[in-house]
Design a protein that fits this description.
There is one protein chain. This protein has about 160 residues and is mainly alpha-helical. It has one domain: Winged helix-like DNA-binding domain superfamily/Winged helix DNA-binding domain (Arc Repressor Mutant, subunit A). The strands form two sheets. It has a two-stranded antiparallel ribbon with strand order 1-2. Strands 3-4 form a two-stranded antiparallel sheet. The protein is globular.
């Protein structure tokens, strides 16, 4: 049996993001929140996930500021989980991951879900990396350089924004 490797000391934004989001149940819980799930029972039913795994993933997402646990105020103490600003900021990541799966796993015309722009009624276009001028950037157009946080002693704790 292998032990999960931790990246807590690695100075890399991808590694630090994976410390928070890097398991499939966590990303699927976030996906369901974007699809409207808010209550424990909703997540459990939609994901066919065990209670202990779901409890751990929700607590982890709350602890790291991706979800807020809010009192639903219905017949005693009942909680709902809502995406925070940090969590809502994952819409781009989740869309890119979904679009990658649509393109490389399912293929055009076989997408399991379509995300529609309510303003136009058309599917959301494929995400692209663009430069300041709005022109598409290719990987060959990009260069990676050391950033100001590279030499700090320890990776920062995730910032929780309101």
């Amino acid at each position: 049996m292998s032990t999960r490797h931790r990246f807590t000391d690695e100075r890399c934004s991808v590694a630090q993001a994976l410390e928070i989001l890097g398991d499939w149940w966590t990303l699927l819980v976030v996906r369901e929140a974007f699809l409207g799930a808010r209550r424990f029972a909703d997540f459990e039913a939609r994901l066919d996930i065990s209670k202990n795994v779901l409890t751990a993933r929700l607590a982890h997402l709350v602890e790291h500021g991706v979800f807020a646990r809010v009192d639903a105020g219905v017949h005693g103490t009942r909680y709902e989980y809502e995406l925070t600003a940090m969590g809502k900021d994952l819409a781009t990541v989740m869309t890119a991951l979904r679009q990658w799966g649509d393109r490389w796993i399912y293929g055009e015309g076989a997408e399991p879900l379509l995300v529609i722009d309510r303003r136009t009624g058309r599917p959301v276009p494929r995400l692209r990396i663009v430069g300041e001028d709005g022109a598409r950037l290719r990987t060959s157009d990009m260069e990676v350089r050391p950033g100001p946080g590279l030499t700090a002693r320890r990776p920062p704790k995730p910032r929780k924004r309101a």
